[in-house]
Design a protein that fits this description.
alpha/beta; 12 helices; globular
């Protein structure tokens, strides 16, 4: 059965506030949750960036929801540390944690001072990290010398069942590559034809029959203008090309690059509407494309109104429910 989840944006809200929001989302009928894992926000206007792994332990304890996060091992995080963190959560909360892995963005990964590799090299490094993580979860003692280095690492605390490794992809090309090694796919909202291409590429690359998750950028408010302005204030960076998104280093860089954008530039990047029936139809569209879990990301700051409105009017209207 399809699941409609709630996306928790650490870039936008203090961790204590997010904990309240996800508990409210569970009470409203959302059936799952996921969170971002950033060191910096995209913009100074967002103003937060709590540590996802600390928060996940609290959120898993405070709710009964399954959770996941999107992580980029190899730069800011050593894969052995990622493996240990995920194993600990999966041991404490069996069957409720999944881990998505991707090649990351310079915005958060540059803080350790390394050189930012080109995408092909980051993909090669990610494959090494995935192999290290899976070997550690299997109880192996791992020594590895490549784009990442591991020396005699062994996890002594492991879950009975390791969490699934979901591959993060934005483009169809990356989705096809992800299909060859990941247990599932996570991607972000695009216009339906582009999303269909991502789905088909993932399946073509080896993902047939594997679960697919969507983080759906959404802006709901009581008025159309309010929904559009909320999206533009908080999430205008999605108006930039994906190659630009991965290669800017600081929130100030993003604020500079987005200063000439207009609210209309977010069309096709964020689903913006005051019409709750329209939002329900959009979610139904995602499910019909084959997504098993849709994590709705309300990009505006008014989370409580969004959670309550979607819980009352949108979730019951979507086939498969929450």
């Amino acid at each position: 059965m399809a699941v409609i989840g709630y996306h928790c944006s650490h870039e936008q809200f203090a961790p204590s506030d997010l904990l309240g929001y996800v508990r409210r989302a569970e009470a409203a009928g959302f059936g799952a949750a996921m969170c971002s894992d950033h060191f910096h926000p995209w913009s100074a206007r967002q103003g937060q960036s709590g540590f996802a792994w600390s928060w996940l332990g609290a959120a898993l304890h405070a709710t009964a929801l399954p959770f996941g996060t999107v992580n980029a091992p190899g730069e800011r995080y050593h894969p052995a540390v990622v493996a240990q963190a995920a194993a600990t959560l999966a041991e404490m909360f069996p069957g409720r944690f999944w881990l998505a892995l991707g090649t990351g963005q310079l915005l958060s990964e540059h803080v350790t001072g390394g050189r930012w590799p080109r995408k092909s090299k980051r993909q090669e490094r990610l494959k090494e990290c995935v192999a290290v993580i899976r070997a550690l979860w299997a109880g192996e003692t791992v020594t590895h010398n490549g784009l990442v280095t591991v020396s005699e690492a062994k996890l002594y605390t492991r879950p009975a069942e390791p969490p699934p490794v979901i591959g993060a992809a934005v483009s169809a090309e990356t989705a096809e590559w992800v299909g060859s090694w990941a247990d599932g796919l996570i991607t972000v909202f695009k216009p339906p034809q582009e999303l269909k291409q991502v789905v088909e590429a993932f399946r073509r690359g080896g993902g047939e029959g594997k679960p697919m998750y969507l983080q759906a950028q959404t802006s709901y408010a009581p008025t159309e203008d309010g929904a559009r302005q909320a999206a533009f204030d908080q999430w205008r960076q999605c108006g930039l090309d994906s190659d630009v998104l991965t290669d800017l280093a600081t929130p100030a860089d993003f604020d500079r690059e987005t200063r000439d954008l207009e609210p209309e530039d977010l069309d096709g990047k964020v689903r913006i509407s005051s019409d709750l029936k329209r939002h329900a139809a959009w979610i139904q569209e995602y499910l019909e494309l084959g997504f098993d879990r849709v994590f709705v990301h309300q990009v505006g700051r008014d989370q409580e109104r969004f959670i309550d409105a979607f819980g009352e009017h949108v979730l019951p209207a979507v086939s498969g429910g929450a």
